[in-house]
Structure formats: structure tokens, C-alpha cells
Amino acid sequence: MSGPISARLLPRTVTITGGRAAVGGVDLATLADEFGTPLYVYDEHELRERCREYRAGFPDGVHYAAKAFLCGAMARLVVEEGLDIDVASGGELHVVRHAGVDASRVVVHGNNKSDDELRIAATAGVKAVVVDSHDELDRLARPEVVGDGRLRVLIRVNPGVEAHTHEYLATGAVDSKFGFPIATGDAMRAVERVAEMRQLEFGGLHCHIGSQIFRREGFDAALDALASLTAQIEVALGLEVDELDLGGGLGIAYTEADDAPPIAQHAAWVHEAFGAAVTNAGVRHRPRVTTEPGRSIAAPAGITLYRVGTIKTIPGVRTYVSVDGGLADNPRPALYGARYEAFVATRADADRDQLVTIAGKHCEQGDLLIRDAEVPGDLAIGDVLAVPATGAYGHSMASNYNQLPRPAVVFVSDGSARVVVRRETLADLVGREV
Ligand SMILES: *Cc1c(COP(=O)(O)O)cnc(C)c1O
Question: Residue 261: helix, strand or coil by DSSP?
């Protein structure tokens, strides 16, 4: 049946010696022994290289979408690599600032920002707030929210674009809770309102059409829509648009079946489409084009390690291999039907000639990490199973379901490993009780 895991799905520092896989020069099974399982392992080199590819591809600016994976170490890493950070809540803003990142490097998102979130962002001096609704403009108009300063804002528009991805991940179609629709004239009206508000500086336009996108058509269509609106703003309002932020959304390969374009290819397509779009639309002042990737920076750098605890064969039906994590550390399979592949950390070069279903340990039949996973025929209790491409929307979406303590996060680099988020303890589970 199937051969070993493809190198294409692994961080670039992975080496396999005598069947044992190492990442960042550190043996995966040894990490599992030392730090316990489940364990989120990140290849720091892979994270940095991806940031650098984005910086090279989008010299006008890159904002890392913190929601994909956030902790202090990650916030500092992306800022060291020259990226700014986008946050989608007061909590994310707090974690980023707690890491020592200056607010001037932070862009604030959200379709329902509270007065407090807006006030804290404005007082801290964030780089920009991306405005999502007329109600938000009403809030920003209140003197106690922005104060005496001047807040730079982008207008999030809904370009009415279908992004060819999972329904829950598509955010740019007309029927969406995000942004001001262009089609209804609301986007134009929002820019007009910003121009009338002394406490706001109009910085430009933003859109985010969805996530895990492989094809360029959606981005091309979004750029066309943004360029048309830009030209309209120039003519009707006499305003220049400084920045077009294209959002994130570039897909990554979770399995051998996924064909995701490299970052450099995506960047080349965007610049080509952007050039054509501003020319066609007759834009006079060419805006800067920026992007805010999350998944495509964090996901490919992360590997989650589990230990196999129970193997149950139902003859003629299937074999369930249960591991010591699941739904709580990675809700994506249950939430989106997301697919992954797996390999055994100590036999990473083995053919995967047995079909099993890898299940979590939660009390839900839907707690299946990988339905029909290919694993080596000799998979046994005690083996460390590694699931690559789990660096995004795993740790950040983790819960304490069934009161499982959340796993630790370990960064590996140049032969050494450091814990950047410790494993939760049983005491943490009751720590908020009063
Ligand atoms: C989630 C999100 C992103 C990042 O999306 P990815 O698919 O992870 O790249 C960027 N911008 C906004 C506004 C988002 O909501």
C-alpha cells in the first residue's frame, strides 16, 4: 500500500536516521519521553524560514495572524523576523504585549470589538484597527474611546468572492458576518464616514476571503474588487488609499493529496494580479499591498506527538488505535473534517501498509484524529505517533474537554529543545474555582 511519510509534509530540518525521526536536530521519541505526550513540537527554523519567505514576497508588510498559533515565544519570533502581528481580541492583544511586543506593531481585528478592546487598542497606540461595522464606527466616534489621539484604521470590506474552501472557512462571500459589503455601497459609505471623523486616519482597505485556499482565482477576484473600490474612493472622495491588506488564507499540505502553492509562488501571483487590477481600474495612487498569513507560517512547522495506548480490532470493520490526546488538543478533524497523516517516530522510514483509524481518548465517537490512517503493520502500544502539519489552529483552539490538561509547547532548534508553554497540571484544572 503506502510508503513512508513524504518529506513534503515535514518541517525542512527533519532527518531520519535508522528509522528515528529528528526535527531541529532533536529526536522526536526522546522529546516524547522527556516532556510527555501529547506534545506540540515546533521547528523554529521552519517558522523563521516561512516568515522570511513572506517578507521577501511581500516587502510592503506582513502581519502574522496570531490566532493560528500564539504564545510569547511565537510573538517574539515573528517580530524578530520583521513581521507585525494581527490580533482578533483583547486577549490576543494582551498576550502579544505581555511578550514585550510594542503595540505599534499590532493590527486589531474583530467583527464585534468591545468599547474596552477599542479603548485599550487606541490608548496603547496600535498600528491600526481594522473596522468591521457601522456600529464600530459609532463606538469610535465616542470621545472616551479614542481620546485625544488619532487612530489609523483600515476598512474591512466584503468583496463578495467565493474562495473555494470549507464553508466555515470562507469569509468573503456576500453572506458573511465580516466586513462592509462592497456590493451594497456600505464599504464606500464606511470610508466616507472615516474621512469625516477627525479622530480617525484612513489607512486603507482590508479583506480576508477565507482560509486553506490553494487556487489563485479567489485572491485575483478580491484584488479586482479592492482596486475598483480604490479607484472609486479616489474619484468620489478625493482620498488616497495607502494600503490594501489582502488578509491571509494561503493553504498548506496536510496530506499527500493537498497541492498547496509555495509562499513565493503565491506572492508572485498576488503581485501580478495586483498590477493588472490597479491598471484596469485606473487607480492613480498605487497602494502598498500587505498580507496577514497565519496557517501558512505556523502549520507546517508543528508536529504533535502522541503515545499509542490501546489497539482494538473489530474484525471486518476497522482497527481503532487510541492515543493519549485528540479532540481537545486538535479539534480540526471534528470541526472541519480536516485530514492528516501520521508516522511512527522511531520507524519514520517504514512503509505504512496498515489502514487503521486513529482515535482520541475523549468520550465522543466523533473524536477521531485520522480516519483511515496509513500506519506501519507493526504499530504497537507504546509507540510514539507523530502528526505533522499541526502547528496552526491546534494549540490555539485547544480545550480542557474531559478535563485533560492541555499539552506543553516545545520549540526545537540546532539540537536543543526548550519548553515555551508548560503542560497544564491537575492544579490548573481547578485553579479558577472559587
Ligand atoms: C484567520 C485570519 C487570518 C489568517 O488566516 P490563515 O488562513 O491562517 O492564513 C488573517 N486575517 C484575518 C482577518 C483572519 O481572520
Answer: coil
C-alpha cell at 434: 472559587
CA 287 to chain centre: 25
pLDDT at position 165 over 80: no
For 290, what's the count of Cα atoms within 13 Å in the CB-facing half-sphere?
A: 24
CB of 388 shorter than 6 A to ligand 1: no
The confidence band for 68, taking pLDDT boundaries of 50, 70 and 90, is: very high
Distances (CA, A) of 72 to 75, 76, 121, 414, 421: 5, 6, 18, 20, 9
* Cell numbers given for 264: 513565493
Q: Compute the distance from residue 249 Cα to the ligand 1 centre, in Å.
A: 6
- List Cβ neighbours of 31 (8 Å cut-off, separation of 6 or more): 39, 41, 305, 410, 412, 417
58: left (phi over 0), alpha (psi -120 to 50) or beta: beta
3-state secondary structure of 419: strand
CB 23 within 8 A of CB 14: yes
The three-state secondary structure class of 396 is: helix
pLDDT > 60? residue 1: no
Report the Cα–Cα distance between both ends of the chain, in Å, rounded. 55
CB of 24 within 6 A of ligand 1: the answer is no
363 is catalytic: yes
Burial of residue 378, with CB atoms counted within 10 A of its CB: 0-12 exposed, 13-18 middle, 19 or more buried: exposed
Question: What pLDDT shows up at residue 318?
Answer: 96
Q: Ligand 1 centroid to 392 CA: how many Å?
A: 11
CA distance linking residue 379 with residue 36, whole number of Å:
19
Is the CB–ligand 1 distance for residue 152 below 6 Å? no
